[in-house]
Amino acid sequence: MILVTGGAYQGRSAYVIREYGTPPGDMADGRSCTPEEAMKARCITAYEELVRRLGDDCIRFTEELCRTPQDRIIILREVGCGIVPVEKSERIWRENVGRCGCIIAANSCRVVRIICGMPEVIKGDSE
C-alpha cells in the first residue's frame, strides 16, 4: 500500500497520475464511493471524506482495508493543521482522519507527502 498525503490543493492526485500511471477513472472517490467500491479500488482519493461518511465505523473499515492483500494507493488530505473547529463533530472527524492516516501509514510500504506539487518521501524508497 502507498499513502499519498498533503494539504489542500497541493497536487496529490496529479502526482499519483504522473508517478503511478493511475488514470482518474480508476480512482474511487471517497466523497461518493460505497465502502464496497473503496475496498475493491486500486486507488482511493479523498479518503478523508470517506472517513467522514463512515463515521464511527471508519477505524474498523480502515483496519480491514489494510488487511486486504490488494496493492492500492490511498490519497489522504491533511486536515489536522490550522484552526481547531468550533463544532464538536468537525473535531471528531479531524481526529478520525488522523487515526485512520496513522493506521494506513503503519501498513504502507511507502508514504509520500506532497508540498507545492513536490513529493517528499517520508517512508520507503525515495525512487
Q: How are strands sequenced across the largest beta sheet?
A: 2-3-4-1-5-6
Low-confidence stretches: none
- Residue share in helix: 40-55%
Output the helix-strand order: EHEHEHHEHEE
Given the structure, what is the number of helices?
A: 5
Helix/strand class? alpha/beta
How would the global form be characterised?
Answer: globular
What is the rounded distance between the termini?
16 Å
**How many DSSP E strands?**
6
Q: Could you tell me the radius of gyration in angstroms?
A: 14 Å
- Can you identify the CATH class? Alpha Beta
| The CATH topology | Rossmann fold
Q: What's the short story on this structure?
A:
The chain has 127 residues and is an alpha/beta fold. The chain contains five helices and six strands; from the N terminus they run βαβαβααβαββ.
